[in-house]
Amino acid sequence: MSDSIIKVKDLTIAYDENVIMHDINFEIKAQDIFMIMGGSGCGKSSLLKVLIGLKNPTKGQIFIQDTDFYKSSESLRKKIMQNSGILYQSGALFSSMTVGENVALPLQQYSSYSPATINELIELKLAQVGLHGYKDFYPDELSGGMKKRAALARAMALDPEILYFDEPSSGLDPVSSRLLDELILEINANLGTTIVIISHDIDSILTIGNQAIYLDATTKTLAAQGNPKKWLKKAPTPAIADFFSRRTEI
Predict the structure, then answer these.
(1) Buried b / exposed e across 193-208, counting CB within 10 Å, b at 16+?
(2) Which of 23, 84, 111, 234 has the most CB atoms around it within 10 Å of its CB?
(3) Whole-structure pTM value
(4) What is the DSSP pairing of strand 59-64 with strand 67-68?
(5) Which of 202, 177, 171, 204 is nearest to 33 (CA)?
């Protein structure tokens, strides 16, 4: 059995004749905080869609816990997807539902828990993200940072082994962004969850990421994989050096 929880092999993603990326290979180990980096148009969002089952790859394989995801049966693929959670960039909370009702959705759909147990789990998940007491609030009554935390509680409802984040700091002020980074570190350390994050936030990448890949929009392939903190000191490519140079810009 591989020690990698996710393995991407010879991946090509295209929309009709438009190739977004080609020949991508990388591995994500269990309990990594793994950053997917790159400039605009490099294919970060497309890669995320393939990883979570929303878009079939044009070529190549995605192995999740040693299972070939896109060659597995529909029932097994659904089971794998239920072992993953995602926090979308906007949070994607249902505005007509309370925070508690949002968190309850995956529990109601994918578990056989009683209503009483689901209610207990809602309270637990909200407490884990620092939102104890907010079960009956509606999303429009929350700040931007609180909405992200509520959406994270929903993503964590089924105790997934893998959590995906799509630009988690997008739209947040620096304080809220830092608090979310701290929460991600806590989840990773306390629950052993593997974290995969699309991000352009350099401070966040350097604060929480222990592994990363950089996708190059020009070559349409993977430029480097490694520890992003080391790239800050010695960038493996000019594109990565330029990416990190934005940290010092005013």
Answers:
(1) bbbbbbbbbbebbbbb
(2) 84
(3) 0.91
(4) antiparallel
(5) 204
pLDDT tens digits for range 173-198 = 889 889 999 999 999 999 999 999 99
Question: Within 10 Å of residue 187's Cβ, how many Cβ atoms?
Answer: 18
User: Residue 2: what pLDDT?
Assistant: 61
All structural domains of the chain with their residue ranges? 29-45+82-248
**Residue 55 C-alpha from the chain's centroid:** 16
> Could you tell me the two tokens for 16?
């009709």
**Integer angstrom CA distances of residue 35 from 43, 59, 70, 193, 198:** 14, 23, 23, 14, 6
pLDDT at 249 over 50: no
Distance CA(118)–CA(10), nearest Å, equals 41
pLDDT digits (tens, 9 = 90+) for 153-174: 999 999 999 999 998 888 888 8
Pairing assessment for the beta strands 33-38 and 194-198 based on DSSP bridges = parallel
Q: In sequence order, what are the residues at sequence separation of 6 or more whose Cβ sits closer than 8 angstroms to the Cβ of residue 90?
A: 171
Structure tokens at 98: 């309370």
Return the SS3 of 97: coil
Q: Does domain 29-45+82-248 have CATH number 3.40.50.300?
A: yes
